[in-house]
TrEMBL record:
Keywords: Transferase
Residue ranges of every copy of the Adenylyltransferase AadA C-terminal domain listed in the record: 161-258
Organism: Reticulibacter mediterranei
UniProt name for this protein: Adenylyltransferase AadA C-terminal domain-containing protein
Pfam families, per the entry: AadA_C
Length: 277
């Protein structure tokens, strides 16, 4: 199985991203100022059959609800042709200094498609801006962007985005893992591989893709969990599966990772990071 980054990804993936870039830069009232890649395309872990295209768009002003509607209508047309889009819109005024949780003006991914379609078919979309929205996970995405991200348009990353404090990033990682534990059956593959990624960063300071996280797990986790990690990697890579793994092993894995991650988080104050592209 071949994995890609922005430099060598399939032409259809680049065409999808470039279509968004061209459309956003001309969308009325969007106040487009920059577009940036993070996630698997930045971490050299993009798998066309499973990966999202992870994007952050910056705007020079907070955008109107009409501009949000136009952006969502565009995303409903472009996303999944061929890859799903996961995109956040951030106003530069909210990026003047880092705050947690970081405000955002719009977030779209495929899990939200039906909700957006329902809002657009009624008058609900007119109320999208009634409340300020924020998300703890943005601390994670901005950290990946700052360390491995790619600027497609706009200011350089270190000029556009505030530095995320290391302790804030670590807290967000652990909070994200704890949240995933509550809903691990929704996507077992992502849960297992992301758990390995979180533990790898907390223990060794390694910022990894899902595929790299699974490989790290096979090298560092107890052997009793290797079949679960191997199965998760096989599913992620669209490879042939081995013997099915029972629920008991999964529950044991989750308990082990909860203890290991929390122990690692409370037992170390400063963790140096290194790139693993």
């Amino acid at each position: 199985m071949e994995y890609y980054n922005w430099t060598n990804c399939p032409k259809v993936i680049k065409a999808e991203v470039n279509t968004l870039l061209a459309e956003f830069s001309h969308l009325p009232d969007l106040h487009f100022s920059g577009m940036y890649l993070h996630g698997s395309l930045a971490l050299s872990g993009f798998q066309p059959a499973r990966s999202d295209i992870d994007i952050i768009v910056t705007t020079s002003k907070r955008i109107s609800v009409q501009a949000e509607k136009a952006a969502v209508e565009l995303l409903l047309r472009v996303s999944k042709f061929p890859a799903p889009i996961d995109i956040w819109f951030l106003a530069e005024s909210d990026l003047a200094s880092f705050q947690q949780p970081l405000p955002f003006t719009l977030h779209y991914n495929e899990r939200l498609r039906e909700s957006f379609q329902q809002d657009l078919s009624s008058d609900a979309w007119q109320h999208w801006n009634d409340q300020t929205r924020s998300d703890l996970h943005l601390a994670i995405y901005l950290t990946v962007l700052q360390r491995k991200g790619i600027c497609l348009a706009g200011k350089a990353i270190d000029e556009e985005f505030p530095l995320v404090p290391e302790q804030v990033f670590l807290d967000a990682l652990v909070a994200s893992f704890q949240e995933a534990c509550k809903h691990y059956l929704q996507d077992l593959v992502a849960f297992v591989l992301n758990s390995c990624r979180v533990y790898a960063y907390l223990r060794d300071g390694q910022l990894l893709s899902k595929n790299q996280g699974g490989a790290w797990g096979l090298a560092h986790l107890p052997e009793q969990y290797h079949p679960l990690v191997q199965q998760s990697l096989a599913l992620y890579r669209s490879e042939r599966l081995g013997r099915p793994i029972g629920r008991a092993v999964l529950n044991e894995f989750m308990t082990y990772m909860e203890q290991a991650i929390l122990r690692q988080r409370t037992g170390s104050e400063e963790i140096s990071w290194r790139d693993n592209g």
